[in-house]
Inverse folding.
């Protein structure tokens, strides 16, 4: 407490401003969303530590440099096909409190309304999906309305056009190039003001012979000038890059007038939802290095091909058909993106190097098991795959599911 009492008023102002600035670097994501971030050059997908995540989402810390870029992308949240779509409904069981998911299939003829409420997409008034941001939710709701309104004969093409749009590397590249040109002056202004606030201000305060009144006058005058310039430039960029409603634009401008730290991060904040309509894999092909893209591509492809089935009720034939069709369509376009980047999509799905006592592995998370127990306990509903050496040995008994011995589990050799 004495240390805090020893700080002057100016030092407290610097400290509070730095704390607010650091908070502006934090980004909240849904569990299936990804944030690509970089100060300059190529971006990397961000991860979060277990203390900063729960069953609804996670916190990631973006690059703190004022010239940072961050792009938040999220997979399409609703499985659909030309006949209908699947709504995932989450309920809490009354006996053990466990969260269980049930899937409900809806034909397009039964859908009367598609709307957005903040970050939720509503179908017939019920929540069909929750997205990371309002921009993501607006994109999904708008495209979903177009699919529902399309004629039955044209609906397959509308869906394929949507999937092609989300995975178009060329369109993403053009969009990013236009954004860089529009935001270049704003990024420079953010850098100058942050340097003035956190470097120039302390240097002037500690090294000069200015009195408090003289320091406050000169420092605040320059700070306010830079602050209001950033607010003006950010508003101008918002008008240039998007079809944002005037009320939303004015609300964002008002928030910048309340927080100079937000103004310093305004260029990075604008970039976060820039690729709201893009498939994460396609965005990674544009903004990530070759090595990062290769690792991200493998994870994305496995996640799409081997979806989790957790707590499903009685199997729904229509829902299974829709899920299978949608997964195949997404995987096909992912393979196109991967192959166009010069990688072999088939090689990314090869089995991991088996440990000595492992006979099966999870094709989604690559955990290894000493005997085939049917499904991976970390990826519910994903059947284990036997290693090639087991199949070649011809010992079929090894790869039959057994539930009589819980000790048959391997020390899970999770492959990084």
């Amino acid at each position: 407490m004495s240390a805090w009492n020893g700080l002057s008023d100016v030092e407290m102002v610097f400290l509070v401003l730095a704390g607010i600035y650091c908070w502006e670097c934090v980004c909240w994501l849904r569990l299936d969303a990804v944030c690509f971030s970089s100060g300059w050059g190529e971006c990397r997908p961000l991860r979060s530590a277990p203390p900063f995540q729960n069953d609804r989402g996670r916190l990631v810390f973006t690059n703190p440099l004022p010239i940072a870029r961050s792009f938040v992308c999220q997979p399409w949240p609703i499985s659909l096909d030309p006949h209908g779509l699947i709504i995932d409904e989450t309920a809490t069981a009354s006996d053990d409190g466990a969260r269980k998911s049930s899937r409900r299939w809806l034909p397009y003829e039964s859908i009367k309304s598609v709307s957005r409420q903040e970050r939720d997409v509503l179908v017939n008034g019920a929540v069909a999906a929750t997205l990371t941001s309002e921009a993501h939710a607006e994109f999904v709701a708008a495209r979903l309305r177009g699919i529902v309104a399309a004629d039955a004969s044209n609906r397959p093409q509308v869906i394929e056009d949507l999937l092609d749009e989300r995975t178009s590397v060329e369109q993403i590249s053009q969009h990013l190039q236009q954004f860089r040109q529009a935001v270049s002056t704003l990024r420079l202004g953010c850098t100058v003001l942050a340097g003035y606030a956190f470097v120039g201000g302390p240097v002037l305060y500690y090294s000069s012979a200015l009195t408090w009144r003289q320091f406050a006058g000169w420092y605040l005058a320059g700070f306010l000038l830079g602050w209001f310039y950033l607010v003006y430039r950010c508003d101008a960029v918002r008008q240039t890059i998007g079809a944002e409603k005037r009320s939303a634009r004015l609300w964002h401008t008002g928030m910048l007038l309340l927080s100079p730290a937000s103004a310093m991060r305004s260029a990075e904040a604008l970039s976060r939802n820039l690729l709201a309509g893009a498939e994460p894999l396609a965005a990674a092909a544009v903004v990530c290095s070759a090595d990062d893209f290769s690792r991200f591509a493998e994870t994305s492809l496995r996640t799409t091909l081997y979806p989790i089935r957790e707590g499903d009720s009685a199997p729904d034939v229509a829902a299974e058909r829709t899920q299978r069709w949608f997964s195949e369509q997404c995987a096909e376009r992912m393979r196109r993106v991967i192959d166009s980047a010069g990688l072999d999509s088939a090689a990314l799905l090869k089995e991991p190097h088996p440990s000595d006592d492992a006979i099966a592995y999870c094709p989604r998370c690559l955990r290894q098991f000493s005997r085939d127990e049917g499904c991976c306990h970390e990826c519910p509903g994903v059947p284990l795959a036997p290693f090639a050496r087991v199949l070649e040995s011809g010992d079929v008994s090894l790869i039959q599911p057994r539930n009589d011995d819980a000790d048959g589990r391997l020390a899970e050799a999770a492959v990084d």
